[in-house]
């Protein structure tokens, strides 16, 4: 699963996205459903938001988690204290498990960074038993991530080189309405449903919002880290002005929407 997500550090990812994926994880779990005795696979576990939220359900028998990034795998292993959880490095497009191994496979905020996303969905379906469930969620970057669109829509006014990057960010795989549903159906899943999940991202200050991006985390951070000094200073100032919106610096809250999809293995 060669990923298009830029990883600098596990701590940086936690500040950029991990703290918010923890809020999203329970919503995906409720949408996917669980039953006592389930064996569940977390595909693209990152620092463990989904796996550790699953572990709050005492009735689960097993939680297996994989991620392509050794940085994330090491961090998740370090944080794990639940014997039901196993974490290993792995490729979402070539899962290291036999057919029909799990009752459910879930993927949280991963498929849009997988170039061969349909293959990852097919692999999730392969390792889930008949009548089991495959479920996934990805951010709606175009219409559901106002905090990140704020940054891109600001920087394209200063740097025309950001225009193709904004387009790529807004229309990554699985992000258009109905796209995940069509993919799930094409991979042979039945009773496929797509919905949207809403959380809020609450920042204490501009620095709380901007620091992990400024440090180079994720696709936004990769762009910012590549700017020459003068343009970087202008971008920093312009994004701060967009965040503050004419009011003193301080807490801000942004609605954030993810597309979610589930299907039954036949």
UniProtKB/TrEMBL annotation:
GO biological process: methylation
Lineage: Bacteria, Pseudomonadati, Pseudomonadota, Alphaproteobacteria, Hyphomicrobiales
Residue span, Methyltransferase type domain: 41-135
Domain of life: Bacteria
Keyword Transferase: yes
Protein name in the entry: Methyltransferase type 11
GO molecular function, one term: methyltransferase activity
Keywords: Methyltransferase, Transferase
CDD domains listed in its UniProt record: AdoMet_MTases (cd02440)
Organism: Rhizobium leguminosarum bv. trifolii (strain WSM2304)
Pfam families, per database record: Methyltransf_11
């Amino acid at each position: 699963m060669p990923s298009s997500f830029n990883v600098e550090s596990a701590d940086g990812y936690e500040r950029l996205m991990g703290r918010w994926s923890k809020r999203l994880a329970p919503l995906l779990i409720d949408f996917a459903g669980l039953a006592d005795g389930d064996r569940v696979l977390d595909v693209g576990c990152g620092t463990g938001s989904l796996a550790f939220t699953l572990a709050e359900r005492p009735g689960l028998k097993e939680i297996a988690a994989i991620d392509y990034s050794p940085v994330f795998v090491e961090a998740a292993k370090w944080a794990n204290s639940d014997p039901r959880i196993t974490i290993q490095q792995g490729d979402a497009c070539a899962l290291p498990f036999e057919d029909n191994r799990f009752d459910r496979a879930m993927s949280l905020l991963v498929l849009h960074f997988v170039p061969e996303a349909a293959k990852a969905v097919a692999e999730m379906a392969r390792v889930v038993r008949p009548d089991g469930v495959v479920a996934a969620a990805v951010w709606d970057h175009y219409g559901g991530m106002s905090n990140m669109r704020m940054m891109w829509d600001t920087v394209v006014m200063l740097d025309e080189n950001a225009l193709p990057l904004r387009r790529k960010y807004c229309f990554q795989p699985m992000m258009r309405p109905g796209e995940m549903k069509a993919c799930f159906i094409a991979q042979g899943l039945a009773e496929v449903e797509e919905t949207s999940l809403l959380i809020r991202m609450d920042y204490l200050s501009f620095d709380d919002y901007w620091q992990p991006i400024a440090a180079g985390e994720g696709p936004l951070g990769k762009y910012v880290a590549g700017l020459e000094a003068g343009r970087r200073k202008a971008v920093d100032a312009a994004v701060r002005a967009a965040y503050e919106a004419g009011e003193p610096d301080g807490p801000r809250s942004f609605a954030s929407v993810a597309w979610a999809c589930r299907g039954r293995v036949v």
